[in-house]
Task: inverse folding
């Protein structure tokens, strides 16, 4: 398979340097989808066939592709929500068959519990672990600060805007200190301005927590800006057609403003190539 | 302080119309526009109320009727809630029972009165059976709908958290279904009174419906009117109780904010 490199002359080296600077010493975790196929009952075609995706701590892997290419299915397989009909999913070599605290999930629809306060939503995972109230509240306050939502812990979910809800969802996902963050179009329902702010917030959080991210998106710019690796999927049946290393997100983490990154001709060229690869073979 | 006053003012507004009706009714009666044989004046109804209150007859009948209503409600509500839960959670249970339940639902339960009298006579069981049957359906249907309507993504979230089945039920499914269950509860309370009064009117030897029927026999029209007013008040009371309960347990819901 062809592995071009976008963004920086040597993203892998830059990446390591950045990782070493921002991440505490942490054992590397490795989520691996090995030749995964999913054939839903009653469907003529498999939703996904023979897809292999590898996510390690510090990776930001983004899945892109046209509708029906199985992006969400793959994410659900990684989460343990959908069992693969072929291939295996492993975390650090161990096959997984169900959801686990090591893989937190963020959906497009925030999926917050409307009957709980913001604070109780964020610390929900800790409650299930039996942590006392005081520790949970302290953790919730800390997590809400991380997503820049200080002081709203007592609010009800219906009082929040879409962007705030998604940030609460993010804080909730981080509460269990997962090794992997699996996000299904987390910014898909947000307006353009909120979306841009959330993108940098995602990068900040990714850089500050040694997590491996697997994210599904429809936004080509978003994929380029965030990813360390972009996986392009094609439909009919869903399969991986291309994998591209990218380093624009690391440049942001390294201190370059987003505007300057997007003004880089390399960004535009990468976008053109990515678009071509996504729409290649589409019936005109 | 001012908020409390406002809230009192808001609930007082609802009583304005009934109060005006009463005043108009009293005036019309005294002016002779309404004959006392057709509709006695509120003051006459008030006098009847006072008399029955002092004799203890009224409170005894209210007590008996309330007890009947509540026991029927508990039996029918518990069965409806239980079956609603079972059918909401298990496709097998739904497949087995839902068709039957829907067929029975389409029989007006008051149409069973002749049969019920043949089965139970005019004993307590007859009233209990009818009330329970009437209460069962709104509770059953709204519990089932509530459970089926829980956002599947919230359930998925619960699975991601590794919740056990009972945790999933207590922490996700039940709170999610609660708004709909309360709708069923309020419907059921209305049907509870309706059924009981009809049943007592037709076959009973005590209770509010019986009191009204006795009064009709003796042409005590003020007592008949009093009974009807008491139905209205008891119905309103049941609704207020259900709504406060609803407000208390659904504080998170945007529809129940006291803003």
Result:
């Amino acid at each position: 398979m062809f592995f071009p490199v976008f963004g920086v002359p040597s993203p892998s080296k830059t990446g390591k340097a950045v990782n070493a600077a921002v991440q505490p010493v942490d054992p590397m975790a490795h989520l691996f989808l090995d030749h995964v196929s999913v054939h839903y009952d009653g469907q003529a075609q498999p939703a996904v066939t023979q897809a292999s995706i590898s996510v390690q701590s510090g990776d930001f892997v983004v899945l892109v592709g046209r509708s029906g290419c199985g992006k969400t299915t793959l994410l659900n397989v990684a989460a343990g929500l959908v069992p693969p009909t072929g291939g295996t999913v492993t975390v650090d070599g161990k096959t997984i068959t169900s959801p686990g605290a090591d893989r937190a999930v963020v959906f497009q629809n925030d999926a917050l519990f409307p009957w709980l306060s913001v604070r109780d939503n964020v610390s929900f995972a800790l409650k299930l672990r039996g942590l006392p109230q005081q520790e949970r509240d302290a953790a919730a306050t800390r997590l809400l600060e991380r997503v820049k939502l200080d002081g709203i812990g007592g609010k009800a979910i219906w009082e929040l805007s879409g962007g705030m809800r998604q940030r609460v969802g993010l804080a909730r996902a981080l509460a269990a200190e997962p090794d992997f963050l699996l996000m299904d179009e987390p910014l898909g329902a947000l307006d353009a301005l909120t979306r841009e702010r959330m993108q940098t917030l995602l990068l900040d959080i990714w850089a500050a927590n040694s997590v491996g991210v697997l994210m599904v998106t429809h936004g080509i710019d978003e994929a380029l800006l965030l990813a360390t690796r972009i996986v392009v999927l094609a439909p009919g049946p869903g399969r991986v057609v291309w994998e591209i290393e990218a380093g624009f997100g690391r440049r942001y983490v390294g201190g370059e403003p987003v505007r300057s990154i997007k003004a880089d001709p390399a960004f535009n060229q990468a976008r053109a190539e990515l678009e071509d690869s996504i729409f290649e073979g589409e019936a005109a | 302080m001012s908020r409390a006053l406002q809230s009192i003012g808001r609930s007082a507004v609802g009583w304005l119309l009934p109060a005006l009706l009463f005043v108009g009714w009293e005036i019309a009666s005294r002016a002779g526009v309404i004959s006392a044989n057709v509709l006695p004046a509120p003051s006459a109804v008030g006098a009847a109320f006072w008399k029955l209150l002092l004799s203890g007859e009224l409170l005894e009948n209210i007590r008996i009727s309330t007890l009947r209503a509540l026991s029927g409600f508990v039996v029918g509500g518990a069965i409806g809630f239980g079956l609603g839960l079972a059918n909401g959670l298990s496709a097998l249970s739904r497949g087995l029972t839902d068709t039957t339940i829907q067929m029975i639902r389409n029989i007006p339960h008051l149409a069973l009165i002749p049969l019920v009298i043949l089965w139970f006579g005019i004993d307590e069981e007859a009233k209990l059976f009818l009330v329970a049957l009437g209460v069962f359906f709104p509770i059953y249907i709204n519990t089932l709908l509530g459970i089926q309507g829980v956002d599947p993504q919230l359930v998925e979230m619960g699975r991601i958290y590794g919740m056990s089945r009972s945790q999933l039920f207590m922490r996700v499914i039940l709170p999610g279904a609660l708004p709909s269950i309360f709708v069923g509860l309020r419907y059921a309370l209305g049907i509870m009174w309706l059924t009981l009064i009809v049943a007592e009117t037709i076959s009973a030897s005590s209770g509010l419906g019986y009191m009204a029927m006795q009064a009709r026999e003796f042409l005590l029209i003020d007592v008949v009117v009093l009974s009807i007013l008491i139905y209205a008040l008891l119905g309103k009371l049941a609704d207020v109780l259900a709504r406060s309960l609803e407000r208390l347990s659904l504080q998170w819901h945007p529809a129940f904010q006291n803003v």
Summary: Chain A has two domains: 55-102+178-279, 112-176. Chain A touches chain B at residues 79-81, 98-101, 103-105, 107, 109, 111, 113-117, 124-125, 128, 156-158 (CB under 8 Å). The first strand of chain A starts at residue 5 and ends at 6. Residues 112-176 of chain A form one domain.
